[in-house]
Design goal:
With about 240 residues, the protein is of the alpha/beta class. The chain has a domain at about 10-170: Aldolase class I (TIM Barrel, Alpha-Beta Barrel). Helix content is about 30%, strand content about 25%. The protein contains eight helices and ten strands. The protein has helices at about 70-80, 100-110, 125-130, 145, 155-160, 180-190, 205-220, 230-235, and strands spanning about 10-20, 30-35, 55, 60-65, 85-90, 115-120, 135-140, 165-170, 195-200, 225. The strands form two sheets. Strands 1-2-5-6-7-8-9-10 form an eight-stranded mixed β-sheet, with helices on one face. It has a two-stranded antiparallel ribbon with strand order 3-4. Helix 2 links the parallel strand 5 (about 85-90) and strand 6. Helix 1 crosses helix 2.
Length: about 240
């Protein structure tokens, strides 16, 4: 039973309906909830996750911060959840607002809504802590050679506990260190993961590099799927 007195409040960047443009569920119609804030300063980040006093939902302006209960009422006012595949929680890094999500997600879950998490993979404990409330978890494996800040060493190992919900994505560029990606493949095999979704930063495809990474991946028993940022290719956000 949910507590009636929900004290935590969240900072929302934006809410909009669109189609998933990355990874395993590309093309799925979703409601996107972008939470403000990220602390990792990844090189080449293309997302505005800054704090703001207000956020827009279907053209209507609402005030930050907002309680989980009030935010749910806004969503219910603007959307028929039955017309969407799922609701995507994204950022920034959404798990930074763990306290807000801890109170908001049970409301969504109790309403029978399929929940989708998009996370950088940096906050492993938080992913596991909130995993019961998510049906699908998209986890980035960040390459230090690409982003300047590598993924946690325990990421794939610890997420094995919830592997039925998780799929992994790697964003690459021509700066990628092949030794680093080989170490990822080793870790994946060690923990029973056999799929990896690859995209290039800013959709700057290098087919020779993609072929090389695919050859290496398949040699380790990892199925490689190249999925560009489709939403950017067709001009939807």
């Amino acid at each position: 039973m949910l507590q009636q007195n929900i004290l935590s409040k969240g900072f929302i960047k934006e809410v909009f309906k669109s189609y998933q443009g990355e990874g395993k569920f590309v093309g799925a119609r979703q409601i996107f909830i972008r939470l403000a804030n990220c602390v990792f300063n990844c090189k080449g980040c293309d997302t505005d996750f800054s704090f703001s006093e207000n956020f827009l939902c279907e053209g209507t302006k609402y005030r930050n911060p907002i309680s989980p209960k009030d935010f749910f009422q806004i969503l219910r006012k603007h959307y028929d959840f039955d017309l969407f595949h799922s609701v995507s929680i994204t950022g920034g890094e959404p798990l930074i607002q763990k306290d807000f999500l801890r109170d908001f997600l049970p409301i969504m879950k109790d309403s029978g809504i399929k929940m989708f998490l998009e996370t950088s993979g940096y906050l492993v404990d938080e992913i596991i802590e909130l995993s019961d409330y998510f049906d699908i978890i998209s986890v980035d494996i960040k390459m230090k050679s690409v982003f300047g800040y590598g993924y946690p060493a325990n990421l794939i190992r610890d997420l094995k506990k919830i592997d039925h919900k998780v799929y992994y994505k790697v964003v690459i560029s021509e700066d990628i260190d092949l030794k680093e990606i080989k170490a990822v493949f080793v870790e994946m095999v060690k923990n029973g993961v056999d799929e990896l979704y690859i995209q290039f930063i800013n959709n700057c495809l290098n087919l020779d590099l993609l072929d090389k990474l695919s050859d290496i991946g398949y040699s380790y028993g990892i199925k490689i799927f190249f999925v560009p940022q489709v939403h950017k290719l067709i001009g939807i956000f």
